[in-house]
Amino acid sequence: MALLRLLSIFALLISVLHSLPWSIDISESQGPGTILQPFSFNCSSYMPTLELLSVRPPTSFFNNPSLHRHDKGIYLGKVTLSSSARLDALAVNRYELQLQYKCGNFVLAGPLFVHVQRDPGRIRCAGPFASPAGEFVYVPETVTPGALLYALLLPGLGVQRAQMNITSAQDPPFFPGPFSIDDQGFLRAPSQGLKGQAPKTFQLQILVSLGKGQSCKGMLTVKVLPAPSSQVSFPQKAQSITISEDLVPGSKVIQVEARGFNLCYEIFSPRPSPFYSIGQADGVVRTTVPLDLARAQGAGVTKLQVRAFEKLRPWVSAEFDLTVNVRAVNQWPPRCHPALLVTQIPETVPVGTVLNTLTCVDPDSTSAPLSYQLQFHNPPDSASLRLRDRVLEVNTTLDCDTPGACFQHAASILVFDNGQPQMTTEVLVLVMVTPVNEFSPACVPRTFRVREDAGPHTLLGSIVGTDMDYPPNSLEYYISGAPPTFAVDRLSGELHLLGPLDYEQQRLYRITILLIDHSQDWDLNLRRSGSCTITIEVEDVNDHAPECEPPFQELTIYTPLGRSMEVTKVSCWIPQEPQRSALSYSIVGGNSQSRFRLQGSVLMHNDTALGPPWPEQPCTYELLIHVADVGPSIPHLSTTATIIVHLVPWRASTVATSTHRSTVSSTMTPLIVTDVEAFWKPEPWFVVVLTATGAVFLLVLGWLLSRILRGFAQSLQAPNKPARALLLNSIQGNAGSIERLKEAPRKEMSQHHFDGRAHDVCTGRDYLFNTRTGARHWL
Ligand SMILES: *[C@@H]1O[C@H](CO)[C@@H](O)[C@H](O)[C@H]1NC(C)=O
Ligand SMILES: *[C@@H]1O[C@H](CO)[C@@H](O)[C@H](O)[C@H]1NC(C)=O
Ligand SMILES: *[C@@H]1O[C@H](CO)[C@@H](O)[C@H](O)[C@H]1NC(C)=O
Ligand SMILES: CC(=O)N[C@H]1CO[C@H](CO)[C@@H](O)[C@@H]1O
After folding, report:
1. In this structure, is residue 305 part of a structural domain?
2. 626-645 burial, b if ≥16 CB within 10 A, otherwise e?
3. Which atom of ligand 2 is nearest to the CA of 374?
4. Which of 451, 555, 677, 740 holds its CA 20 to 30 A away from the CA of 485?
């Protein structure tokens, strides 16, 4: 050892002294910290430095040299292997270290050659195999099962056999089966093969072990490659497809499929595609936005160019033209403004008045034309409104004064689009017609007649007013400025009498009836009026009974047989109302054999009616003449005059016809009983009748006595004179029979009604008679 040291010092001295390049051999098995070679320098008066300027090939295997003072003026320099030193004779077997020594101004530079010697007893895991990522082995997936994939050769292994094991786990399902490596370093594929394993990578940790406890580790990464494809192609070059616009975004349009291995798909035109996307792996084309044709412009037809390519070899590709047509779908009915049409118009609006104009749009297509149709609901089949294009107008008069309710018109406007399927919108129309008071009420002038004795509240008549507005004849009646004699019922138009009337004071009234309509206009204050004149004629009513002058006559008539002649004239009048001259006369009693009749007020005798043989003897007739007033009203006041006629038959050979008239003397007051039909008052009448009858009876008796005495001498030639004259008072209606005639047989009185008693001189018998019927009862 001491010898070696001496040698080295010697060598150093040589080197320093001669500055010769020198070299060192070092075994590759030397590790970090190994001192290569110490060398000394002579530098007495300076502090020397030693530097490693460079290493070729560059490496960090060497530390900077160190310099230590060894003895007086002598320094020892050392170069050691760094901690990263991994010497490998197969990789680099010579390093050149450039060293520089300084001692004061003295500079010495020179190379040091380090020769790395191989160590035959050492195995090494070197190269990419020993790197953390390991060695990459690319294998197509079509490799035959168990095929040799890789041979792991380790430097320095030489002919020695090492044991190689895969230490990492190879568990399914990631591993189709275990890879294997043998002692020669031959890596083989799993016996199951690698089909379908692309593009997996399998990392295999390899342990290399030699005897004598030596071993190292490394990594092999097997990457399975897909089978090399033949060619990528589409079954057809182009395709056209039609979809409807109502597809929601994300809907599948079509799936494209190309032949090839491990393909990807993309749309390469247009790029970016605004409406569609394609699934990179599955080739499904989907929509990305709503395809509303009205809004998404240009969505109608889209030409897509699709490319399919191999994932690992993108340049292997095929192209496909896809045309997507979007079909419009009618999704929305038209939208209209206004959506509901309610309006109110007066009935007088002229035909052609515009009620409203519809504005409709189709959300599906703003430009497509729409069609409109008017449909009536109430009244059905009405022609009152019409639709011209989109304008609702009044078509016919909306007059509501004719019967039938027309105040509300209900209809619909149907708006159709022309899409498929057709969509419809209904716009309800409600037109209220308001009434207008157009017409004035009217009434016809009329004349009413009323008896002057009519009582209060007597109905004179009804005024009928008319008004053509609806509701018809909604009228009220008023009397305009009338005297308070009349009143009109406000609602019914009946005209009533209020106060007393007097024909003698006022015969004619003219009153103006005012008619005012109501409830015939939307504005209830709008009322119209009309009027007409009603004439009221007061009818005269006779207030007094007629009187006759003289009231009682007695006549002797010489009449030629079979001749007719005037007997006398009955002259009667109403003294209080001399203008009322029309009176009616009738014979009501004593006209036996109907020998007398009345021509107006003239009493005629007619023998011819009797026919021969005419009576030879004189006869006496007591005739009762009923006199009544006639006028505009029913005659109701009357009197009865009495005429006694002595009829003396006269032969033509004797004397001419003559009439002997004897009037009632002034002392003999004839009695005329009058009776007002409507108002018979029995009590005063009875008193008068009884008194008067008694008095007359006495007078007549006296007169008869004088007649008998006077006529005794004439009794030979004159006919039989009536022994008595009966003055009977006519009583109309139910006046009843005269009490005096009690001797009449009871049973016949009960059957007939007799007013008086008379004596027929021609037959010589007494009889009872009825003044109205002329019936007789012979006693
Ligand atoms: C390595 O593999 C061999 C068989 O090839 C086996 O006998 C040996 O035990 C294995 N060694 C280790 C450490 O697994
Ligand atoms: C409009 O009125 C006329 C008659 O005036 C009728 O012929 C026509 O049909 C009406 N129009 C409509 C749309 O009802
Ligand atoms: C008298 O009566 C007869 C028969 O009724 C009639 O034909 C005749 O005309 C009358 N004479 C006169 C003058 O009225
Ligand atoms: C041992 C050795 O060589 N020593 C030398 C160092 O250098 C001085 C002068 O430069 C010499 O005198 C010594 O002999």
Report:
1. yes
2. bbbbebeeebbbbbbbbbbb
3. 13
4. 677
